[in-house]
Amino acid sequence: MSNKIMVVNAGSSSLKFKLYEMPEEKVLTQGIFERIGLEEGIFQIEVAGENKKEYLQLPNHAVCVTHLVKVLVEEGIVSDLNEITGVGHRVVQGGKYFSDAALLDEKSENLIEMMNSLAPLHNPAHLIGIRAFKEVLPNVKMTATFDTAYHQSMEMEDYLFPIPYEYYEDYDIRRYGAHGTSHHYLALEAKNHELKDSKSQRVITCHIGSGASITASKDAKCVATSMGLTPLGGIMMGTRCGDIDPSVYKFIAEYTNQSIDEVYDTLYKKSGLIGVSGVSSDTRDIEAAIKNGDKRALAAAKLFARRIADYIGQYYIRLGGADLIVFSAGIGENSPYFRKLVVDNIASALNLRLDEQANKSSNRERGIISTPDSKVKVAIIPTDEEIMIARDCIRILNLN
Length: 400
Ligand code: ADP
Known about the structure:
- The chain is α/β, with parallel strands linked by helices.
- The protein folds into two domains: 3-146, 2-Layer Sandwich (Nucleotidyltransferase, domain 5), CATH 3.30.420.40; 196-385, ATPase, nucleotide binding domain (Nucleotidyltransferase, domain 5), CATH 3.30.420.
- It has 14 helices and 14 strands.
- The chain has helices at 61-74, 106-114, 123-136, 156-159, 165-171, 180-192, 247-256, 260-269, 272-277, 283-291, 295-318, 329-334, 336-350, 385-396; strands at residues 3-10, 15-22, 26-34, 41-47, 50-56, 84-91, 102-103, 142-146, 202-208, 212-218, 221-225, 324-328, 367-368, 377-380.
- The strands form two sheets. Strands 5-4-3-2-1-6-8-7 form an eight-stranded mixed beta sheet.
- The longest helix is centred in the C-terminal third of the chain and has 24 residues, at 295-318.
- It starts with a strand and ends with a helix.
- The model has no long low-confidence stretch (mean pLDDT 96).
- Bound molecules: adenosine-5'-diphosphate.
């Protein structure tokens, strides 16, 4: 039987959606509500391959969902709302409670709410989105897919921080990771395609966009990941510092008279590529500045690549070798310059070489970018978190 599954990513002032026909995995439409709760909202939806844009009042998420279902019927994308048999929501933080996607009911919603403190920018907004859909489509069953779930298979040595054990026991302070849905998708894709004839499936996935993380997977199961308790840890990012000596916190606070929250804000929003370069958090601007001879932009780019390479090296050891290194997300899929910078840092140790011609791809094109004689393959695989959420929804709701 065919099912129409709505995939939702709700933020505090935005709501992204994608409607799938399953199991065919056909995208029927997609779009976004923006500026929810502000004076004038924006609604965009793809209809028959064309983008339609509307400016309208969007006081809250429930109004958006009501508008969405109205447009879906008006445009003939669904003939009846009963055709939508499931809604799958993206949820950033599932903590220790979710090692898989879950049915959304009172219990799971309460657990998501309990995780608010670990993802204050995300989980409360997801809950608003979940409740809005419940209000407008009360008879449709819903599921949640957690960015952290894939990383729950890590061993304790891979997730425990070397701080007093009581903090882990009493407050659940540990590494949870991020972008798990993307890393899982990439590891599965690698297993089924790039490595389908390989005896082993040791994959290092580099999800590098404005937020970025590296994951080591074996047989499409997470072994280790770079993000920490929150999305501040791991590699350097567009505006986030990633792993640093924790005492930097104390020194910044003392020298600049900033509170704990202010230092956190500095490390979260004013560090990384923008902090080091002083130019931008966007790699396109960094590349342009480097071309114009900007030394700080070059330093930022080199540091960024080195941090990624350090993690690749660490995970090469952790996995006992690697069969494939994957580049994905905004930077990984689109920037030949940054991919080359990373590969230059690892090529000699891992006995691999970049195929310069193949690396020219700058438009989400899938492909191998290492030379055939390389001991470890390197590939670009465009990520697709939404299809994972749709698949989870079908599986959890038993709609197959
Ligand atoms: P997120 O989902 O974390 O917001 P994305 O994965 O969409 O981020 O990545 C966005 C980033 O990707 C941009 O900030 C920019 O640095 C980079 N990026 C996107 N397109 C290009 C491009 N054509 N060339 C270089 N970098 C790009």
